[in-house]
Amino acid sequence: MAFDLDTFAETSEAVTWHDLDLDTFESRPLDADTLRTLRYMCDVEYHTSCFLREMLVTPSHREEDAAGFMTMWNREEFWHGEALAAVLARHGIVVDYDELKAKRVKLGWRLAIGTVKQSALANLIGSDFVAAHMTWGAANELSAVAAYRRLADMHDHPALSPLLRRIAQQETRHVAFYTTQARERLQASPRARGLVRSILEKYWKPVGSGIMEESEVRHVMGHLFAGRAEELDKLDRRLQRLPGLEGISMFRAAFARLGIA
Amino acid sequence: MTGRTLPPGYRPDGHLHLDDSISPVLVTDVDVTKYAENARGRIAVADDVAIDGRTARDLAYLWRLETAALHDMRAMLISWTGSEPRVTAFLATWAYERYWLARALRDLLDAADRPLQPPGPRPLSARARDVYLDRLLPLTSPLLGQLAGEALTAGHMARMAVLEGAQQVALETLRPRLAGEARDVVDEVARRRTDIVAFFRAETAARVARSTAERALAWAYLQPPWRPLRTVGMRDALEVQALGSIFDDPASLVALAASDTAVTAALPGRPTPSVTLVRRARRRRRPLPTRPGSTHGV
What we know:
The complex is a heterodimer. By secondary structure, chain A is mainly α. Chain A is 73% helix and 0% strand. The longest helix of chain A has 29 residues, at 97-125. Chain A is globular. In chain B, helix 2 (53-66) runs antiparallel to helix 6 (152-174), helix 6 runs antiparallel to helix 7 (180-208) and helix 10 (250-264) packs antiparallel against helix 11 (273-284).
């Protein structure tokens, strides 16, 4: 089914949590590993603007559907960050503007050079590079959905679990956009199919790898997916439906490189 | 919170990354959290709308400016301003609101049976600038942003303050030429823009008051080749016609000057880039031919 920007935009909304009783974290606080994972997720959501800027240096920013989606997506992800920060605050963890600035400033040249690299690749490869971005985005959003649902299932918590499921539900809409875009572009271009497969197999890493230390990526992904190879296989099967990605086992391979599953 | 076990690396105050090497985030009186919480979506437009040809062409021009939000955000995010979380928090909602402001103008023109058409090929200078913005700026801006640092954001904020203020004046100037539903919709677009203008003006004022470097960069960012009332600073094929038509009343130039100097009063020479551009357009504008059926870009 083609992506319907009008419907997506009209139904785009900030995730809500004010109906959830965050006071339950007083009697049922989260453990350190869960807080570490939540902090990782919170940082990734709040740094969507960094991912957005990498998308914006590709030709996709000139396309109406992609531009409209990116506008809505950026706002929705910001509110995911706000929601997770509210949970963290109940545990004495502060993710305010100063903390976010500190993170971004310390990433400094890494972020800047990342943007330059994306732009250079987009200039060299042309519009087929957008196919890579869209497929990469699909992979990221698929793994985000899986991560949120996994964490929700690990805790039968009256505040945390419904919040995570709400976030996951919004992420499924993002999956729909990215996979629709990826499918159309991969179908249209044999060059894109070869390019995207190669890029994903060699370079894809779990979402957040660009802004987090590898030790943190390993810890969080291990917390969520260690011993759960079937979850990774499910994700691979979703990607395998895309033209040119038949038989790909990108998730398994990427997690194996981290020593997980 | 006493007795809680936090993950490794956290300080007693609950921060993980923040230390004395990081300058505090600039905070003005504008409540970004409240703005984000109260984000405004689609503006309903009734079916039966009447707009004359000239006003429809002018609104089409303003629509093209409204659609440039993501391009403007791109220029900010790929540079140091992307590291300013209070600004990026504002921009996340601002871009959403700008999307719906653009949609309102498009819906209005559709309802008036004045469908949008492409404005025609851009002048060579605009096409060259397009290549620069599209291909070269993303290669240079991130690196220059790292070198220049936080002071650069003053330049971005000054630009956005002038740009949003000028678009506000344009809407208010068109208002008397509209009636009924058309006037109501343009009123709403202008009303929503008030918060946007307030944010960028407050950011600019606070930053230029803070340091000589920020004052200098704010001034520099308002110089040519950048101009407000253009899509990402690029000339539109119908710019002269549109700006000459929108701002044909001397009172509108006074309003535009006030809008510019609300931003630039503390800058050397108090530049008025919107006024400069509009004056040039008014001098160069020729009356449109009166061929029947000519739609002139609408």
